[in-house]
């Protein structure tokens, strides 16, 4: 996280009332950001957001009649089940 100084290209301007809450938030983030639990959840959220973004692209292009988005984080495990349920 930034140290709050305008050195180089870093830094920030924060209203005084937000300085302490933002410092607490930054400290909490720094404490958990490298844990396996956080990293696993972060990767799953990234996978889900990419899946939704791609589905939106397909929908806007009108290339597909049906779009299936799996947000479990491991869509490869569920492809067979989805195919069976959709009669394809």
Quickly count the helices: 3
Main sheet summary:
none
| Percent of residues in beta strands | under 5%
- Name the structural class: mainly alpha
Order of helices and strands: HHH
Mean pLDDT: 79
Net shape: elongated
Helix content: 55-70%
First-residue to last-residue Cα separation: 49 Å
Instruction: Determine the oligomeric state from the structure.
Output: single chain
Low-confidence stretches: none
Number of folding domains?
Answer: 2
Whole-angstrom Rg: 21 Å
**Number of DSSP strand runs:** 0
Question: How would you describe the overall organization of this protein?
Answer:
- The chain is mostly helical.
- The protein has two domains: 1-33, no CATH class; 36-85, no CATH class.
- 57% of the residues lie in helices and 0% in strands.
- The chain contains three helices and no strands.
Question: Which properties best describe this structure?
Answer:
88 residues; mainly alpha; 2 domains; 3 helices; 57% helix; elongated; lyase; EC 4.2.1.20; Trp_synth_beta/beta-like; pyridoxal phosphate
Show the helix and strand layout.
Layout: H1 16-32, H2 36-61, H3 79-85
């Amino acid at each position: 996280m930034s140290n709050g100084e305008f050195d180089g290209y870093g830094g920030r301007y924060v209203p005084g009332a937000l300085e302490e809450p933002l410092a607490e938030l930054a400290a909490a983030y720094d404490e958990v950001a490298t844990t396996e639990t956080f990293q696993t959840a972060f990767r799953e959220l990234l996978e889900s957001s990419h899946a939704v973004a791609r589905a939106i692209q397909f929908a806007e292009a009108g290339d597909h009649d049906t779009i299936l988005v799996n947000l479990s984080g491991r869509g490869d495990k569920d492809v067979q089940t989805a195919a069976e349920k959709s009669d394809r």
